[in-house]
Write a structure and sequence with these properties.
By secondary structure, this protein is mainly α. Helix content is 58%, strand content 5%. Helix 9 crosses helix 17. The longest helix has 28 residues, at 79-106. The chain crosses the membrane at residues 155-172, 179-202, 276-297, 343-365, 377-395, 415-435, 440-459, 471-502. It is a multi-pass membrane protein. It is found in: Membrane.
């Protein structure tokens, strides 16, 4: 329908008979007066004398549905979806229970903290999550970064870090700062995740071999493993190594394919493959249960256990309370400010890394659909924020559990609710039996999971496509191992940004001799990047040098601006100096095919002294005029412009180039 802009529009349209008929059928007089007063009403929203909803309320409603996605899909939730989500939720729950216990010990916390972190994130993501496949909970990476803050401290630091991470993620979502994550490139991410995988695997050698020591970092752990290797426990080692072998074998079981005589699997074969798949994804729970049964059978109350056990796990749900804004270490009170000071850069790095992983998982399971990074920021922020009230450590999306969730046929985010309920039941009913879980079994679960995060296979394609990207990759990898993951990733990002800035500071200049159709020689200089202040002196010096040596201080020099998309004031001052250099040598200088925005910046400094043209014909005419005049100093007004031709269009004729 037509939109009114005022009384004049009303009068013009009302004089039309056709309009009067349509108006009588579709709008009442009240609607017409409201429309004349600039009230926004669409035909679909108004019928007869029905009430309409102002646009601002529609926007608020859409925003609320966007930020709380459960409002959109819950009214359409049916029994079929509930069954699929229940199966997926229980399957993921069986996976996350042993992983949660293992990741809590990796973070230097008591095992129950892993389960606290597992149920809170799953339930919150059901309400605010935008991707049905993602499962929120403890991960190896978050556990490692938490361990560095908990070491020689207490669990209060982990819970406070979770709270502060949630606050920062929520603020980033409110300010739409998800773009900051884009500065962590794939090469840096590869080096970071590979290094953390190695660190995690090495840290689990202590539990795998039954050793007892404390270590602060990767090198310290490696050294102490070497020093204490003679004290290894054979039972722990045999159990741990056997568990790893079985876990790796079960990981491949799901890839077994069966086919009938006609090349397609029969119903029986499909059932067998489904059973093998279920066996494969439940491998962590099966190994932990089997090892726990063995240790229970071998347990004697008054004798030393055959294998090292995780010991007593606190039963029941965690108390609902505010995060700790102060704590005590060895009887010494520590204030909130001092705790934040101790946490240092992890307050920023932990939430950023968490969001990076969560968005990457969402993109992997988006099936080509766009991912709302802002919503993921909001959601992850709420998960950590509310999780800190139930003693959770920092959480993010788990790729392995999300893959299990996807393969289990989850239909909506409601699967996370069923997972959370299962974890709550385990905290209430199963914690007495967690006492008999061997540490070697948990170490085997972690090692068999993280070794596949070492992305060594990406080095070969990176070497073939862009070798310079190997610099931040290996730098991040080595520095994360040597000085810590936080400083390592910061230095890696810094190196990557430097590699991005180098082309702006030292752009490649393509310089070659050209000849016009009339036979006139000229020197063509083509910068391969935009002009900003770091590059202006370099470009000026190199162009001057080429004009003197190759152009013999007399040949016309043409600067092809096709790649110059932008310029700043400092660059314009440098170009003004370049023009003056050429003017002193009485050597012609012409700027070819500049964008109007770039030209405006240059002319703002160079006034009218810049000679430019937009097409090859104009360039040829300009250079011929220069050659005929014999006095380049008087050519500042020889500017051939064509107002009808867009400055965005490339040359009309480049056969000579």
């Amino acid at each position: 329908m037509e939109w009114f802009n005022g009384p004049a529009d009303v009068e013009t349209e009302f004089n039309s008979l056709a309009y009067r008929r349509s108006l009588r059928d579709k709008l009442s007089l009240t609607a017409l007066l409201q429309k004349n007063l600039h009230t926004t009403i669409t035909m679909s929203e108004y019928s007869g004398e029905a009430k309409y909803r102002p646009k601002r309320y529609q926007s608020i409603g859409k925003l609320f549905k966007k930020r709380v996605p459960i409002i959109s899909w819950l009214p359409k939730y049916d029994a079929d979806q509930a069954v699929s989500d229940l199966i997926a939720g229980v399957t993921v729950g069986l996976t996350v229970m042993p992983q949660g216990l293992a990741y809590a010990t990796l973070a230097g916390l008591e095992p129950q903290y892993g389960l606290y972190s597992a149920f809170a994130g799953c339930i919150v993501y059901t309400v605010f999550g935008s991707c049905k496949d993602i499962t929120i909970g403890p991960t190896a990476l978050m556990s490692l970064m938490t361990y560095q803050q908990v070491f020689n401290r207490n669990a209060d630091y982990a819970v406070l870090l979770c709270f502060l991470s949630g606050i920062l993620q929520f603020i980033m979502g409110s300010l739409k700062l998800g773009v900051l994550i884009d500065f962590i490139s794939i090469p840096v991410t590869v080096g970071f995740t590979s290094a953390t995988s190695v660190i995690i695997a090495v840290s689990q050698l202590k539990g795998l071999l039954g050793l007892k020591f404390e270590s602060s970092n990767f090198l310290d752990c490696l050294l102490k493993v070497y020093q204490n290797i003679g004290n290894y426990r054979a039972n722990d080692t045999i159990l741990g190594v056997t568990s790893i072998i079985i876990l790796l074998m079960l990981r491949k079981v799901k890839d077994i394919k069966l086919f009938g005589p006609n090349g397609k699997p029969t119903n029986k074969q499909r059932t067998i493959m489904k059973g093998l798949w279920l066996l494969s994804i439940s491998r962590n729970a099966l190994i932990v249960v089997a090892c726990s049964i063995i240790s229970y059978w071998c347990y004697r109350p008054n004798a030393e256990p055959y294998v090292t056990l995780i010991g007593k796990v606190r039963s029941g749900l965690p108390p609902l309370k505010f995060p700790p804004f102060g704590t005590e270490i060895n009887g010494t009170p520590v204030s909130f400010i001092n705790m934040c000071w101790d946490l240092g850069s992890s307050i920023i790095l932990v939430p950023v890394i968490a969001v990076l992983g969560n968005v990457a998982i969402a993109k992997a399971f988006a099936s080509g659909n766009s991912v709302d990074a802002t919503q993921e920021l909001y959601c992850l922020g709420v998960c950590n924020l509310l999780g800190s009230f139930v003693s959770s450590m920092p959480v993010t999306g788990s790729f392995s559990r999300s893959a299990v969730n996807h393969a289990s046929g989850v239909r909506t985010p409601m699967g996370g609710l069923y997972t959370g309920i299962l974890i709550i039941l385990s905290l209430s009913l199963l914690t007495p039996y967690f006492y008999f879980i061997p540490k070697a079994a948990l170490a085997a679960v972690i090692i068999s999971a993280v070794i596949f995060m070492i992305e060594y296979e990406i080095v070969k394609p990176m070497w073939k496509s862009s070798r310079k990207d190997l610099i931040p990759t290996f730098a991040t990898f080595v520095l994360c191992l040597g000085i810590g993951v936080e400083l390592g990733i910061l230095v890696g990002v810094g190196i990557n940004i430097m590699l991005l800035l180098i082309p702006s500071a030292r752009p490649f200049l393509h310089i070659e001799m050209k000849k016009l159709r009339t036979g006139l020689d000229y020197l063509l200089v083509t910068p391969e990047n935009s002009l900003y202040f770091p590059a202006v002196d370099f470009m000026r010096a190199k162009t001057d040098r080429a004009a003197v040596k190759m152009g013999q201080s007399k040949l016309p020099v043409v600067v092809d601006c096709k790649h110059i998309l932008d310029a700043d004031f400092t660059a314009a001052k440098g170009i003004a100096g370049l023009i003056m250099d050429f003017k002193r040598r009485k050597q012609p200088l012409c700027f070819y095919n500049p964008r109007k925005s770039v030209l405006a910046v240059l002319q703002g400094v160079c006034v009218d002294e810049i000679v430019h043209c937009f097409t090859y014909d104009e360039l040829e005419q300009t250079l011929n005029d220069i050659n005929c005049s014999g006095n380049p100093a008087e050519l500042k007004d020889i500017v051939h412009t064509t107002s009808q031709q867009s400055h965005e269009t490339p040359l009309l004729n480049r056969r000579q180039h």
